[in-house]
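User: Need the bound-state model for magnesium ion:
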Amino acid sequence: MSSSYDFLFKVVVLGEGAVGKTAIVTRFSHGFFRTDYKTTIGSQFAVKNLEIPSGKNDSLTVKLQIWDVAGQSRFQILRPMYYRGSSGGILVYDVSRRRTFIVLEEWLEELEKALGKKIPLVLVANKTDLPDRVVDPAEGKEFAERHDMPYVESSAKTGQGIVDIFEQLAKTLVEERTTE
Ligand code: G3D
Ligand code: MG
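Assistant: Bound-state model below.
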């Protein structure tokens, strides 16, 4: 039954405007990619169930409530409200725009300040399908290691890495919850 689950987590999606946050969430929750996304106004969320292997032959159903928060600076005042109650998050940058990588620290600070603590995050290097990549995998991996988070390369356009992002996060969240 799609309404039954073992764990429910609120997940926030962070990153500069136009890095592909809405495209990633749409691809993951509906399985398609559209090019006519309206710039996310304020915030919206998608819900999706994931099966995470557990033990030898068993699995757990993890329900993710994924909040796609608007990245534009004019929404900055509202964002802390959407961060509240998040168990985890994904931090997204666009490999074809260095600025989106440089500002990652600021996103981390904003989130930690709003929550008063650190939560598990996955670093997402999006738009790997583009030929004009400027941020190398090594740079992303170094950032991810330094902040103790998994690193996933993705393309919301081709679908590469999209499920992996949420599986990695769900696994970490379940581990955290079950070892508390
Ligand atoms: P945001 O929610 O982070 O602001 P969007 O970003 O999801 O709205 O995406 C911004 C633009 O990048 C959109 O283009 C979208 O189609 C495109 N995009 C998102 N992910 C990818 C990707 O993996 N590869 C490529 N090539 N493009 C991507 P438009 O032109 O509609 O503004
Ligand atoms: Mg958006």
